[in-house]
Amino acid sequence: MPRHLPEVEPLVWDDFTSWFKGVWNPGEHMAVIAPTGAGKSTFVGGILDARRYVLALDPKGGDSTLSKVGYQRLTAWPGDKRMSQMVEENDRNGEPSRFIVGGKSRTPEEQDKLRATMKATLDGAWSMGGWTVYADELQILTDRRMMNLQQECDRMLIAARDRGVSFISSYQAPAWVTPHASRQATWVAVSYTRDAAVVDRLAEILGRPKQEIRGALQGLDRFSWLIVGRDPREPYRVTIPHAL
Predict the structure, then answer these.
(1) Distance of CA 74 to the CA centre of its chain
(2) DSSP state of 161
(3) Based on C-alpha coordinates, what's the Rg of the chain?
(4) How far apart are CA 73 and CA 29, in angstroms?
């Protein structure tokens, strides 16, 4: 149990995912904050099973970690009309519609194509509504020196709730991404980190001293997560089994 936060309720991974499926509403966003190697993709992959309509964006271009979730990969956005047909076909067959979007990116030309695919997917998810969008490594999408798609991501975070769109963003530090990633998030999941901005944000949400938050995060194991939801008085802790 995290130090200095004795009221945090520990949950077994399977119990957490089962519980979370029942309380995570369409339009509720999540921020997943952790350093490299903490298991962000594994954590998100586990909770995405709660949703039938998922678009997992791959701005890295062929990320092998993201591929482990086992979704069908689309190298380009097929267009809203074609995607609607694909979803309808899956619905008729009783199957979920879960996709990884983004092809390999090794050359400048492939990078330009990948950026266009990310933008088209964000625009398509917005216009269609109902999707859960996972933005892996959000800083790649939003940084002006990279894909410069902060406007599209901010639109999702600020105005997509009424469209039933949930936006999950994963990143290493709040200072690297749009501030709306954490401000608009109903759920915040944090693994072990020393980042001061993470401590500040959690202290603000929980209304607790920064020293307590810092101690709680330092007390987390590598595969453990501190999760704060719509009721900041009830944070949770969950550990992902090493077998995942």
Answers:
(1) 19
(2) G
(3) 18
(4) 23
CA distance linking residue 89 with residue 92, whole number of Å: 5
How do residues 174-188 score in pLDDT, each as one tens digit?
Answer: 888 999 998 999 999
Question: Using alpha carbons only, what angle is made at residue 160 by residues 158 and 164, rounded to the nearest 5 degrees?
Answer: 145
**Residue 56: strand, helix, or coil:** strand
Sign of CA dihedral 187, 174, 198, 41: positive
Question: Which two structure tokens, joined as six digits, stand for 190?
Answer: 């944090």
All structural domains of the chain: 26-189 (3.40.50.300)
Single out the residue of 78, 81, 97 nearest to residue 89, CA to CA: 97
Nearest to 193 by CA among 169, 213, 177: 213
Task: Tally the C-alpha atoms within 13 A of residue 203's C-alpha that lie toward its C-beta.
Answer: 14
Q: Report which residue type is found at 67.
A: S
pLDDT tens track for 126-170: 999 999 999 989 999 999 999 999 999 999 999 998 999 999 999
Q: Are 177 and 138 in contact (CB under 8 A)?
A: yes
Question: What would the two tokens of residue 87 be?
Answer: 């979803």
Q: Decide which of 203 and 85 is more confident.
A: 85
Average pLDDT over residues 236-242: 82
Q: Which two tokens stand for residue 45?
A: 């992959």
Please check the confidence at residue 44 and state whether its pLDDT lies above 90. yes
Cβ atoms within 10 Å, residue 92: 8
Q: Whose structure tokens read 């030309």?
A: 109
